């Protein structure tokens, strides 16, 4: 059985419940977005999956095998996050060299090619890199390591728009050539909406949504019109329809609705698709 | 004469030319986007305007008066950036209190109200705040200070989507009630596109664009179609039209063009508006 399974994971820190009974599957060869507010538990989950933190309860399997104290299983996983695992006084090019020792499939030539594309100076010490270039350095490691499961925690923090665009393009290109499982945890949701296939939303340590992006977006929409028109439309909706919120500008109102929309809206109302970031904001606002 | 004028500012660091002959005007009561790649010179410019760094050449005037060693002029300016000017062991609530000493117009009650909205714990020490909450703390200072010229350097770094949305909403609300000059330097261009009126793009220490957002977007467009159709359209364009770049997916091509579009495109081609972030990426890629 291929894939990573997260089985009933819970974890608390002092009096804070970070994760509560999390069950998830990361299938082979898919790109996931792991979305959540600051403090929702995303980083704790990624640290547990990669064995850098331990759960209070539950366990993780990699290709069917429990991962705890299992080097073969853990070597199939690569996590990049703000915690840098390389000695800080090491130079970038030396970090590439030693990566081959830990990960025999690490492609040093590819790492050097990406460094050129991002104009990363490989002679610099890791600790002397700016926030943006720290992210670029870690992304290059993750893109060159060639393991089946790669987890990106905030890969574009500090990157300018051109470098973010380049990162997404290279990720998609690499994935198209040889699919792997990529899990991207990010606050820049609208930018990854076209990159990810599956969406996992964590809220206060629990899974709120776990479905394909297309499904999630197909089951939500925006309705706009005059305040009275929109209000009368909202009151006509079946009881099980959830209204996530609304914005009012002047005399106009836009309401964000979870559920399938009618084929025919009342005259004067306009329907538009929901974007993933708007949906996220409304789902996680309370 | 109201407004800030940047007069022929140049500045080098060692062998790097950070800024070269910059001339700019920030008018009263407008919202500006200051956009540029990492290392383009944005932060140096903001530090010079707020007198935290000195130019090699040129000067800055505030409401017509040179700002160097002029406390009255400098008190009209507030800059927030990653450099925190408060003692790090100070608590948030005490930072609000002493802000009134420097800026008599600082609205402490409003700062406390915003802290509640962002769930910022005012009893915490500044240094113990996460990256996201450091940004929130600085934004609250900037929104409460009530001076005519407020400069935001990366105000949403580390903020989740909900908090970014809240920040933009509060900024617009405050601006609508009493307009002030806000200059926002950010890498999240598409998100501020609807907030800013004026766009300044800096590239390698020089001003590349300085015009209204509407003008900039009205003079650019995207054309999509089959590769051969798009190529033949591009070759038919007048010589002074600039083609910024293109994306190819399968047999289809989208080209990004600077210039006014024809009213009637050849059959089979589709025109769509350019978004500001795409435009930025293509203008600053080389």
UniProtKB/TrEMBL annotation, chains A, B:
Pfam families, per database record: ABC_tran
Superkingdom classification of source: Bacteria
SUPFAM superfamilies documented for this protein: P-loop containing nucleoside triphosphate hydrolases
Domain ABC transporter stretches: 4-229
Ligase as UniProt keyword: no
Keyword Nucleotide-binding: yes
GO terms of molecular function: ATP binding
Keyword annotations of the record: ATP-binding, Nucleotide-binding
UniProt-listed SMART domains: AAA
Protein name: ABC transporter ATP-binding protein
Organism: Claveliimonas bilis
């Amino acid at each position: 059985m291929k894939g990573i399974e997260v089985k009933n994971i819970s974890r608390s820190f002092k009096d804070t419940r970070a994760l509560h009974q999390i069950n998830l599957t990361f299938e082979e060869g898919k790109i996931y977005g792991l979305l959540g507010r600051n403090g929702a538990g995303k980083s704790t989950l990624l640290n547990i999956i990669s064995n850098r933190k331990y759960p209070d309860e539950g366990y993780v399997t990699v290709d069917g095998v429990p991962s705890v104290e299992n080097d073969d299983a853990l070597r199939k996983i690569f996590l990049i996050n703000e915690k840098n695992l390389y000695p800080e006084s090491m130079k970038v090019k030396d970090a590439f060299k030693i990566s081959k020792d830990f990960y025999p499939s690490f492609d040093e030539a590819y790492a050097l090619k990406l460094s050129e594309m991002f104009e990363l100076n490989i002679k610099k010490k890791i600790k002397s890199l700016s926030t943006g270039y720290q992210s670029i350095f870690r992304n290059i490691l993750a893109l060159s390591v060639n393991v089946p499961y790669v987890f990106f925690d905030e890969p574009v923090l500090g990157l300018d728009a051109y470098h973010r665009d380049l990162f997404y393009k290279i990720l998609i290109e690499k994935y198209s050539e040889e699919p792997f499982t990529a899990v991207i945890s990010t606050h820049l949701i609208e930018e990854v909406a076209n990159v990810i296939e599956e969406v996992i939303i964590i809220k206060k340590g629990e899974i709120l949504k776990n479905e394909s992006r297309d499904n999630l977006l197909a089951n939500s929409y925006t309705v706009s019109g005059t305040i009275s028109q929109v209000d009368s439309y909202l009151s006509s909706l079946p009881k099980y329809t959830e209204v996530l919120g609304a914005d009012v500008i002047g005399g106009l109102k836009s309401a964000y609705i979870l559920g399938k929309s009618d084929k025919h809206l009342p005259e004067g109302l306009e329907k538009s698709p929901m974007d993933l970031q708007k949906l996220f904001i409304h789902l996680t606002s309370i």
